[in-house]
């Protein structure tokens, strides 16, 4: 007599496939049984409260704020409307290596450190010198340029 062509692995895969099909059919039947026919619109609505959270209760009309539609600015404000920062800043040289040609300046108002390169110098500077400078965007952040000794 010949051996059956059905291996153990094939029969296991077939069992899994049939079980999956049965589970899918059960879930479909449950969904049909639990489906609400003729549900009201009010039951399906979701509201947003004053904090931006989703709730099923309508918001309190006393907390409603009247917003003027013309006061809403869409997009980026024009450059003229933006406040102009003072171009020239003052600070102190915290470190400067003359052999390598770079250093750092600490802004006197914000205490932020800015990189300075010898190509951005107007006057010769050294450590602990008080300087005035302007900022430009560099590859790794803001760089001090047009650096003058005070």
UniProtKB/TrEMBL annotation:
<feature type="domain" description="CSD">
    <location>
        <begin position="88"/>
        <end position="149"/>
    </location>
</feature>
<dbReference type="InterPro" id="IPR011129">
    <property type="entry name" value="CSD"/>
</dbReference>
<dbReference type="Pfam" id="PF00313">
    <property type="entry name" value="CSD"/>
</dbReference>
<protein>
    <submittedName>
        <fullName>Cold shock domain-containing protein</fullName>
    </submittedName>
</protein>
<dbReference type="InterPro" id="IPR002059">
    <property type="entry name" value="CSP_DNA-bd"/>
</dbReference>
<feature type="region of interest" description="Disordered">
    <location>
        <begin position="1"/>
        <end position="34"/>
    </location>
</feature>
<dbReference type="InterPro" id="IPR012340">
    <property type="entry name" value="NA-bd_OB-fold"/>
</dbReference>
<feature type="compositionally biased region" description="Basic residues">
    <location>
        <begin position="16"/>
        <end position="26"/>
    </location>
</feature>
């Amino acid at each position: 007599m010949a051996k059956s062509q059905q291996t153990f692995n094939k029969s296991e895969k077939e069992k899994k496939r049939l079980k999956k099909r049965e589970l899918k059919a059960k879930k479909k039947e449950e969904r049909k049984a639990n489906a609400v026919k003729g549900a009201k619109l009010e039951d399906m609505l979701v509201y947003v409260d004053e904090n931006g959270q989703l709730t099923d209760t309508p918001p309190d009309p006393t907390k409603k704020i009247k917003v003027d539609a013309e006061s809403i600015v869409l997009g980026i404000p024009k450059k003229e409307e933006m406040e102009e920062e003072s171009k020239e800043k003052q600070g102190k040289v915290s470190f400067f290596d003359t052999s390598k040609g770079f250093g750092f300046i600490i802004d006197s108002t914000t205490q932020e450190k800015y990189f300075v390169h010898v190509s951005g110098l107007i006057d010769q500077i050294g450590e602990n010198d008080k300087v005035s400078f302007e900022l430009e965007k560099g590859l790794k952040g803001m760089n001090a340029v047009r650096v003058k000794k005070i």
